[in-house]
Amino acid sequence: MSTPPLSGAGMAGAAGAAGGFPGPPAAAAAAATREVNTASLCRIGQETVQDIVFRTMEIFQLLRNMQQLIPYIEDDYWKNEERGPASQLRYATEERREILEVNKKLKQKNQQLKQIMDQLRNLIWDINAMLAMRN
């Protein structure tokens, strides 16, 4: 019992007799396809790594810009020599007042954003209605 040849004249002759493509060029095409796939895979991997690096650099740039936008404010409590109950109460009262002001501003901004979103929603509905009437 003998094993059939893997490639060469026997396969080429059989493929040629059957009306197909000869053996060695088909084997070369399969090898070329494998190389192209490997090259494509490497290219896709390189693009992915470059995209990750770019996005990471973008995130760090945004964080750096945010850090510049937030001013550094020394804590008055730690600068103050007095640390008694009266000082703590005064500090807590000031902090509470500041928090209430920030909450008030935040609610105003949220209301403005809600109005903008409602206006955009209405605009999108109008655009969709006009597009539906065209068809």
From TrEMBL:
One of its GO terms (biological process) is positive regulation of DNA-templated transcription. Keywords: Activator, Coiled coil, Nucleus, Transcription, Transcription regulation. It comes from the Eukaryota. The keyword Plastid does not apply. One of its GO terms (cellular component) is mediator complex. Residues 92-126 form a coiled coil. One of its GO terms (molecular function) is transcription coregulator activity. Pfam families: Med30 (PF11315). InterPro entries: Mediator_Med30_met (IPR021019). It is found in: Nucleus. PANTHER family: MEDIATOR OF RNA POLYMERASE II TRANSCRIPTION SUBUNIT 30. Component of the Mediator complex, a coactivator involved in the regulated transcription of nearly all RNA polymerase II-dependent genes. Mediator functions as a bridge to convey information from gene-specific regulatory proteins to the basal RNA polymerase II transcription machinery. Mediator is recruited to promoters by direct interactions with regulatory proteins and serves as a scaffold for the assembly of a functional preinitiation complex with RNA polymerase II and the general transcription factors. Belongs to the Mediator complex subunit 30 family. This is Mediator of RNA polymerase II transcription subunit 30. The lineage of its organism: Eukaryota, Metazoa, Chordata, Craniata, Vertebrata.
